[in-house]
């Protein structure tokens, strides 16, 4: 009953969904660039459908969004490579329901690269979790060493590569690596796939693979799901094993394991002080817990919180 009440509340005037649609509609009217306006309208239509019909058919709405993105941005397909070019980056062609995952991740992982960092604030109202980069806080610079923690299909890995970074793409699931991520690594420069999970200690663990929603695959915390046995490492251990002389940027979206990942990166946070872009919405106390871990590792960090992410950097 509580869930039904919350859904109704979001649709009432001043409710979260109602307000998001109102803001998006206003932003569309203000936008002068015809391509950017088309992108805004495509995302707005998905949000509108959820408002009118409910979120039970999220995959259907996302696939419609994927098709619109494909048309607006003129994806260049290379079927023999199972890949497609968007701007300069090359990413896997998603299949079936995975087109839904692609569309959902695209707005957060790749939109700033497509529209330009200088325009990303105009799209904030159209993003689900917010961009992994924001020119006011953290961005990837040419020559940066980047850790993409929770690489999944590799959209952000491709973006960071095209921005001039050397990317270590951490993805625990061999299923995802073999199906998609290896394509991203093969088709873009300086991406190295690391088929491991990240935590605060080394070992092995069971990893849930959500075959119909790959973006929500995670370390095992429930029964009745497809699982893989995966190798677990820490960022500190990996940096030492690979003799990395620096790490400049860490992006993390790992379904609630962010705090353990940070606890396993204390030495790196202290000695390398990388820029951080970390999701904070998986667990209720994520914003407070993650900030505390970062500050304890290196008090020089400045931390900025967005609704679903934190950005952190040292001057």
The radius of gyration is 19 Å
Instruction: Specify the CATH homologous superfamily of the largest domain.
Output: Vaccinia Virus protein VP39
The secondary-structure element order is: HHHHEEEHHEHEHEEEEEHEHHEHEE
Number of distinct beta strands: 14
What key attributes describe this structure?
about 325 residues; alpha/beta; Rossmann fold; 2 domains; 4-stranded mixed β-sheet; 12 helices; about 20% strand
What does this structure look like?
Helix 3 (34-53) runs antiparallel to helix 4. Helix content is 41%, strand content 20%. The chain is globular and about 50 Å long. The longest helix has 20 residues, at 34-53. It is of the alpha/beta class. It is built from 12 helices and 14 strands. It has 2 domains: 1-127, no CATH class; 138-315, Rossmann fold, CATH 3.40.50.150. It has helices at 2-11, 16-30, 34-53, 58-72, 98-109, 111-115, 155-162, 174-187, 235-241, 258-263, 266-271, 286-297, and strands at 76-78, 83-86, 89-92, 145-149, 166-170, 191-194, 197-198, 203-208, 218-219, 227-233, 249-252, 275-279, 301-305, 309-314. The strands form 3 sheets. It has a 7-stranded mixed sheet, with helices on both faces. A 4-stranded mixed sheet has the order 7-10-8-9. The chain starts with a helix and ends with a strand.
Provide the fold topology.
Elements: H1 2-11, H2 16-30, H3 34-53, H4 58-72, E1 76-78, E2 83-86, E3 89-92, H5 98-109, H6 111-115, E4 145-149, H7 155-162, E5 166-170, H8 174-187, E6 191-194, E7 197-198, E8 203-208, E9 218-219, E10 227-233, H9 235-241, E11 249-252, H10 258-263, H11 266-271, E12 275-279, H12 286-297, E13 301-305, E14 309-314
Parallel strand pairs: 4-5, 4-11, 5-6, 7-10, 11-12
Antiparallel strand pairs: 1-2, 2-3, 8-9, 8-10, 12-14, 13-14
Helix pairs in contact: 2-3, 3-4, 4-5
